[in-house]
Amino acid sequence: MQYRQLGRSGLQVSEISLGSWLTYGATVDVAASIKIVACALELGINLFDTADAYANGAAEESLRESLRGVARHKVVIATKAFFPMSDDVNDRGLSRKHLFESVEASLRRLGTDYVDLHQCHRADDSVPMDETVRAYEDLIRAGKVLYWGTSEWSAKQITDAVRTAESWGGYGPISNQPQYSILRRGIEKKVIRSCKREGIGQIVWSPMAQGVLTGKYATGVRPEGTRAAHPFQSRFMEAFLTEEVLARVEQLRPLAADLGLSMSQLALAWCLRQPNVASAIVGATTPAQIEENAKASGVVLPPEVLATIDELFPA
Q: Is residue 51 part of a domain?
């Protein structure tokens, strides 16, 4: 496993990280998650991403059990806040009140005194940027959060957060967590350019486009037990499951084979070709999946392969 510096911070994160969206605390039980996380640790993965809203807190609790007994300095725990955690009007968003209460609740569920990275799960236009940034300043000074970041923020929103922190010498964000894959390249136009300028690194989610880039749906069939066959999980990937997209994805298969890679390894290595991407988050329901994905770390794709992918899936 290779590691990259997250933005301009001193934090080093594994190129492949393990996420918990739609898996731990939901479709993957604690016993299975313990085995998967143990495998990830053996492979050198140190970044574990979750959120308070994942399975309404159960994902954080599952991660607590999976990391029990692991020396705290060996892992980077990242969680998030924004989405409603109850029907209460203040139990959501990026207000000072909700951020403080969300962090405290996450610390209890995770069984730790601090989180390495706390992220704004989405932007909140109803709250002044100054309020959100100052809340993180105080959480960091209190030792409950070490760094903070954003997720799915626009280039302008990220820049505004940086400038707000700079205006009074505060702590700005060090990371952004966007969707990024061969099938979703939107951040290349503005977000990456702005983040490079501001010293912010990307921790990308869905690098395999919800499994579509693994090639498992090539025939259009949705095998039992996969996300595409799940009534809830499949709604996040319907746009990828068209005949036209699947036909183009199939053209990636010989590219991967010629390089001795699986299609998932090709998809991950493609994301990591971008220097501003510090880590690619993968989901895993078995140790074998995380073992295969971890092998993408350090893979350098030839220029001609990158050019072919650009032709098939232009930015």
A: yes
